[in-house]
C-alpha cells in the first residue's frame, strides 16, 4: 500500500514538474537522466547475452558458448540467427 501511494504519487508529480519546465533543453536533460537507469538496465544484459551467443565468423567461433562447443570438438552454432533454436 505504501509503495502504491507514494511511488505512484511521486511518478505523477515528477511528470507534472518536468512538463512545467520552460526551457526545452533542461526538460530533455532531466527526462534523459530520469529514464537512463531503465535504458541501461536493459542494455547491459542484452549486450552480455550477445557476447555469449555471438555467431561464428568463418571457421573461428567468436562467442563464449561457441568457443566451449569448439573446445569439445563440436560444430559452432549460430544461436542468434538459427530459427530452429530461437523460433520467432
Largest sheet: none
Number of individual domains: 2
How confident overall, as mean pLDDT?
80
Number of helices: 3
Order of helices and strands: HHH
Instruction: Note the beta-strand portion.
Output: under 5%
Radius of gyration: 22 Å
Give the low-pLDDT segments.
none
Helix coverage percent: 55-70%
Global morphology: elongated
Distance between the termini: 39 Å
The assigned structural class equals mainly alpha
Strand segment tally? 0
Describe this structure in words.
There is one protein chain. With 88 residues, the protein is an all-alpha fold. It folds into two domains: 2-41, no CATH class; 54-88, no CATH class. Helices cover 64% and strands 0% of the residues. It is built from three helices and no strands. It has helices at residues 2-19, 24-53, 64-71. The two termini are 39 Å apart.
